[in-house]
């Protein structure tokens, strides 16, 4: 018999309104790690299309790999975090794998080697995401999950903001020296791993979802999580509907790199300022992550999540209808707001629906569905762009996202909203 997080007695939950210390530390780890990752992400579209000469379809396949490489590993990361009850161990392995992937970029000379390096980096991200989110979800009270995830995502967004700035500065000092960007990225990633290892405590959840700090043998005699338990998650109605809605919406998502290339193609920005597009998006994300997290706690996480994809649709339309720097700026505002309304809100919406002993697994299932949908969307968008023009591809995906919103609206509004219970 499962025990849900919502079944924990009120007295067993923390009552402080402050964001738990571990959430802040995990946010700092994500900040440092994202500086490393976004340094590479900011130059990857230019590096792939200009330095390596990849076509839009080839870049679409690469972007699909970038998203899809995390699907299976996300599931494994969540499953083993719950089965071993060692989320820090699993997440730490993911951070280390991501750091090692940066060194793999140095000898890259073709699409195959670049795909391998990107695949390893994304596998590391997939492995660490669900265990890290489990540490956040169990660190504080359920009625403040949106705020906790919002604070973490805000710090994460700060790293995403700083990474492209560092890449921009390095390339300004040494134009075209992508190897220097990769070396600095690796060194920064190692700092993130060290902070995680030394400052994040290991937390083991007991059968009620209350963190344990005892010895490893303290769990002896309790049945470990099995694959059959994971399959049972799909029998939870609210979770199943949220999962389907997230998958449908993500399949109509255009990757940031593609959207920025559309702005570049329409002369809304120049190549010189291309890396800073990531900065602007992250700045909006940083400004809105905590406020929208608090709004989701108060008015419903499902509603805020759905609204986020409406903002993404506005970003699509702005990219093709509004020209010049002003149009590009408005597009980036919508894009950053979309991330702030969805990235942290989705796991915050999923966690209360899940059995306490399968929280990491359930979060990983939702995130894997999103990653898989984005991978399919990236390949499809690259194919449409290759067959037609960039604007036509954006129009196609704008129509697809509109249809996805209509299909997902009924699903996600029926998913059980725990806003009232959380109060």
TrEMBL record:
Any Pfam family hit: MFS_1
Residues that span the membrane, as ranges: 21-44, 64-81, 180-198, 242-261, 273-292, 313-339, 392-413
GO CC aspect terms: plasma membrane
InterPro entries: MFS, MFS_dom, MFS_trans_sf
Bilayer topology annotation: Multi-pass membrane protein
Keyword Transmembrane among UniProt keywords: yes
Major facilitator superfamily (MFS) profile domain boundaries: 22-416
Keywords: Membrane, Transmembrane, Transmembrane helix
Main location: membrane
SUPFAM superfamilies: MFS general substrate transporter
UniProt superkingdom: Bacteria
Keyword Chloroplast among UniProt keywords: no
GO molecular function: transmembrane transporter activity
Entry's localization field: Cell membrane
Name this polypeptide is given: MFS transporter
Gene source species: Actinomadura rubrisoli
């Amino acid at each position: 018999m499962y025990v849900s997080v919502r079944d924990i007695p009120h007295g067993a939950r923390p009552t402080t309104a402050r964001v738990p210390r571990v959430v802040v530390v995990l946010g700092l780890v994500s900040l440092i790690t994202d500086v490393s990752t976004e340094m590479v992400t900011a130059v990857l579209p230019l590096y792939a299309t200009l330095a390596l000469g990849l076509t839009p379809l080839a870049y679409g396949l690469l972007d699909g790999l970038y998203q899809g490489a995390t699907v299976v590993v996300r599931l494994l990361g969540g499953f083993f975090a719950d089965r071993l009850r060692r989320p820090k161990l699993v997440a730490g392995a993911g951070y280390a794998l991501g750091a090692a992937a940066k060194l793999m970029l140095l000898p890259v000379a073709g699409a195959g080697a670049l795909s391998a390096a990107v695949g390893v980096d994304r596998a590391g991200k997939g492995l660490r995401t669900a265990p890290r989110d489990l540490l956040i979800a169990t660190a504080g009270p359920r009625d403040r999950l949106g705020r906790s995830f919002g604070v973490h995502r805000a710090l994460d967004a700060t790293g995403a903001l700083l990474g492209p700035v560092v890449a921009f500065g390095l390339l300004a000092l040494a134009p075209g020296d992508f190897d220097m960007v990769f070396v600095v990225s690796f060194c920064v990633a190692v700092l993130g791993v060290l902070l995680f290892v030394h400052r994040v405590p290991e937390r083991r959840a007991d059968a009620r979802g209350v963190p344990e700090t005892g010895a490893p043998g303290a769990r002896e005699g309790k049945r470990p999580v099995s694959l059959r338990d994971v399959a049972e998650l799909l029998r939870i109605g609210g979770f199943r509907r949220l999962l389907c809605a997230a998958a449908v919406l993500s399949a109509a998502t255009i990757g940031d790199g593609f959207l920025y290339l559309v702005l570049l193609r329409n002369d809304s920005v120049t190549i010189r300022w291309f890396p800073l597009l990531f900065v602007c998006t992250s700045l909006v994300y940083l400004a809105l992550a905590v406020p929208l997290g608090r709004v989701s706690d108060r008015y419903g996480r499902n509603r805020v999540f759905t609204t986020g994809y409406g903002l993404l649709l506005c970003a699509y339309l702005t990219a093709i209808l509004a020209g010049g720097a002003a149009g590009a700026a408005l597009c980036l505002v919508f894009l950053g707001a979309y991330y702030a309304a969805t990235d942290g809100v989705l796991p915050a919406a999923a966690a209360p629906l899940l059995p306490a002993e399968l929280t990491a697994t359930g979060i990983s299932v939702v995130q894997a569905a999103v990653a898989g949908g984005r991978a399919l969307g990236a390949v499809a968008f690259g194919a449409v762009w290759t067959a037609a023009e960039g604007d036509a591809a954006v129009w196609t995906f704008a129509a697809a996202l509109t249809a996805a919103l209509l299909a997902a609206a009924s699903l996600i509004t029926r998913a059980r909203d725990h806003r009232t219970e959380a109060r």
